[in-house]
Design goal:
The longest helix is centred in the C-terminal third of the chain and has 32 residues. The protein is α/β, with parallel strands linked by helices. Helix 10 packs across helix 21 and helix 21 runs parallel beside helix 22. The chain starts with 6 loop residues before the first helix and ends in a 10-residue tail after the last strand. Strands 3-2-1-4-7-6-5 form a 7-stranded mixed β-sheet, with helices on both faces. Strands 14-13-12-15-16-17-20 form a 7-stranded parallel β-sheet, sandwiched between helices. It has 3 domains: 225 residues, 3-Layer(aba) Sandwich (L-fuculose-1-phosphate Aldolase); 184 residues, 3-Layer(aba) Sandwich (L-fuculose-1-phosphate Aldolase); 226 residues, Rossmann fold, CATH 3.40.50.
Length: 707
């Protein structure tokens, strides 16, 4: 591992923060250096601190501990991420014989200098009890790998030297803080303390030296692991290409991962998937005895809240789709049964009062496919995949030295159901549970137009992962950028697609499946219009409108159906197809025959799809909207083309387009794209057992009442 500390760069960083104490500025600088290295810290792992002084409101100088706040990323941390605590008071806590986790957190909260600060790291007392000004703590992969072996101490001392101390696994919090401080007092010359199954602490009175020591010891460990792999001839040849089809397997997996609702009125919990593959990953999964090596427990219990202790292993080579579905279902059931047994055994032994988390795996290993991370959100799935990849590579490195020794189930349970660890995920869980479409994926065609903006906006607000497709990449990009200003841009993806081309549609849906595992909500929204009387209507022009408005809906339904079937085959994910139909289905207009007829055909096709797909739990509904012209600067491509001609066909001025449509409905209201989006979310949320229905979104056009 390369040492990234540069004195000139450090001093420039300090100079650029004139309102920070120099020690705090250096603390931020080296924290960011640590945070850049995923092999040191991964998704919140590790913490750093510095001891300094502050002047209180009364003008008194007081010793303080600046400690990384919970939830902050070391790679991007700034002053706000280092809450200041009363150091003298924290050190007095060491005299206590015991301190509950909840009371420890309460003491942190009541001894902050700023009540709006983030909650300090749960290991704040470790940093407080150590005498050094700078303390760095990481879950370095190489260090943890070496500790996850039987009798690690002799090997670690041989590798790292005599200026380290080694401690067994101890739960973080007050007990760990007391043991670490006592350890340093017994060995005052040490430069680092290594915790088995946890990580490494380095410390010094300067930021540079504490950081240098971290890089020094981790690099020695990495070099040793690499040398052992080379000396023992661990094979590096590439594996043969796999004939497994990820686009077939992932929807089957998503179905099997579905969590059934406890009550009929509750939402089904579904997950997004994140596929991680590389030649290195494939090589690891193909080595001899790979299943035994890689289905062992987590590198550090800190990972368990994101990945569970064990991954699910699936060998799907030489399986057809039927065999794949059966294997996935059987393996998932066995995994869940094992998790339930683990939970029940631990609550019995510990006399604990806990509510069991869902028993689904969060990391899945499939030779020939790769690592699959599982999460309610795309971010959670990616985090699980990241940790899974680091764990895989670390175990592969350790396998060249000695068998892996996972932590006892009791210690894993303590961490997985530790109230302070659960608190890290609480905010995200509450947010996810309050969003009706959390864990769902949606595709909206015609994604470059105004209606797609409103549909996309409301789907995103409801928690869905949204894909937008359009034949016009420029308009599509504009809509994605617009929605990205309101929502996390990583939740939005534009896919160029021609809905009239079966190959284009197939490739677009395949991309969605490979990116997140499947599809839950399909909104055929692409549309084309033409103003012409039947007498003047050109046959080629009519076919073009039919190709988009009718054939395009058919192509989308046909291509999405296999995905819905696979998800339903192994689970209970409810699929939704919501066709953006038109008020013209029931109230067609003169000189608008091509559009009205094509929309009526698509509307009827939706009803047929409702009849045919109900057996797999897919609901198909239609929204009949009146004219929508723009949304936040995104115009309707359809109305841009036909709006003026449509008004002229009524012998009215094109300038009065919006007024005409507003005044003709019973409510005298403008129909907006968000109104259509709200209707889509209503159907997609499954609040009522409805399929084959038509919902007007038109302000009340009497001639268009469904009948």
């Amino acid at each position: 591992m390369k040492n990234q500390y540069h004195n000139n760069e450090a001093q420039e960083f300090v100079a650029a923060q004139p309102h920070y104490h120099p020690d705090l500025a250096l603390r931020i600088y080296t924290s960011r250096l640590i945070g850049r290295e995923s092999n040191l810290v991964l998704h919140g792992g590790g913490n750093t601190s510095v001891k300094g002084k502050m002047i209180t409101l009364l003008g008194e100088m007081q010793d303080v501990l600046f400690i990384k706040g919970s939830g902050w990323d070391l790679a991007t941390i700034d002053k706000r991420g280092f809450p200041a605590l009363d150091l003298a008071y924290l050190r007095r806590l060491r005299s206590l014989d015991s301190l509950s986790d909840e009371e420890m957190v309460n003491q942190f909260k009541t001894h902050l200098f700023d009540s709006t600060s983030p909650l300090p790291s749960i290991e704040a007392l470790v940093h407080a009890f150590l005498p050094h000004r700078f303390v760095d703590h990481t879950h370095a992969d190489a260090i943890v790998t070496l500790t996850n072996m039987a009798e690690p101490e002799p090997r670690l001392r041989e590798i790292l030297g005599d200026k380290i101390a080694l401690l067994p696994w101890i739960m973080p919090g007050f007990p760990l803080a007391k043991v670490i401080s006592a350890c340093f007092e017994d060995h005052p010359g040490i430069e680092a303390i290594i915790l088995c199954n946890h990580g490494i602490f380095t410390f010094a009175d300067t930021a540079e030296l504490a950081y240098n020591r971290m890089i020094h010891y981790v690099t020695i460990a990495e070099d040793y692991l690499q040398s052992q792999r080379q000396s023992k001839g661990v094979r590096k040849e590439t594996v043969a290409s796999s004939n497994l089809d990820s686009a077939m397997i992932l929807p089957l997996l998503r179905g099997a991962l579905t969590v059934k609702p406890e009550k009929p009125a509750d939402n089904t919990v579904s997950f997004l998937l994140h596929l991680r593959e590389s030649q290195v990953i494939h090589n690891c999964l193909d080595i001899d005895n790979a299943k035994a090596i890689f289905t062992t427990g987590v590198l550090t219990p800190d990972h368990v809240i994101r990945t569970k202790n064990h991954p699910l292993w699936l060998d799907l080579h030489d399986h057809d789709e039927e065999q794949t579905a059966q294997t996935i279902s059987a393996a998932m059931a066995a995994y869940e049964a094992a998790y339930i047994d683990y939970f029940q055994e631990q609550v019995t032994v510990k006399k604990a009062h806990c509510i069991m988390l869902d028993p689904k795996p969060r990391v899945i290993l499939i030779p020939g496919i790769g690592i699959i991370g599982v999460g309610v959100t795309d971010k959670e799935a990616a985090i699980a995949a990241d940790i899974g990849e680091h764990t895989l590579l670390a175990k592969a490195a350790g396998a060249a030295i000695a068998p892996y020794q996972e932590l006892a189930a009791g210690h894993i349970f303590d961490m997985e159901y530790w109230s302070l660890e659960q608190a890290k995920l609480k905010k995200g869980k509450v947010q996810a549970s309050s969003q009706p479409l959390s864990g769902r994926t949606a595709l909206v065609t015609g994604g470059g137009g105004a209606i797609a903006v409103g549909i996309g906006r409301q789907l995103l607000a409801a928690g869905a992962r949204v894909f937008l497709s359009d034949i016009d990449p420029v308009r599509l990009q504009r809509v994605c950028e617009l929605l990205g200003q309101e929502f996390d841009p990583t939740w939005i993806r534009g896919i160029p697609m021609d809905v009239t081309d079966a190959t284009s549609v197939h490739l677009g849906l395949r991309q969605i499946v490979l990116e997140c595992g499947g599809l839950d909500i399909l909104v055929p929204n692409a549309g084309l219009a033409l103003v012409s009387t039947l007498a003047e209507l050109d046959e080629l022009a009519l076919r073009k409108v039919l190709d988009v408005n009718l054939l395009g809906v058919f192509q989308m339904i046909k291509a999405a159906t296999p995905i819905f079937r696979r998800q339903a085959r192994t689970g209970h994910i409810p699929g939704h197809i919501i066709i953006n139909s038109s008020k013209n289905v029931f109230a067609p207009g003169a000189a608008f025959g091509a559009y009205s007829a094509s929309k009526a055909g698509a509307h009827q096709m939706g009803k047929i799809a409702a009849l045919e797909l109900a057996e797999i739990g897919v609901r198909v509904n239609m929204i009949n909207a009146d004219g929508i012209f723009d949304d936040h600067g995104i115009s309707s491509g359809l109305w841009d083309v036909v709006g003026p001609d449509r008004m002229r066909s009524r012998n009215l001025s094109p300038d009065n387009l919006k007024d005409y449509y507003r005044n003709r409905n019973l409510l005298k209201t403008e129909v907006l794209a968000d109104h259509v989006g709200n209707a889509v979310v209503f159907f997609a949320s499954g609040l009522t057992p409805t399929t084959g229905a038509t919902l007007p979104v038109d302000g009340g056009v009497a001639a268009a009442f469904p009948r």
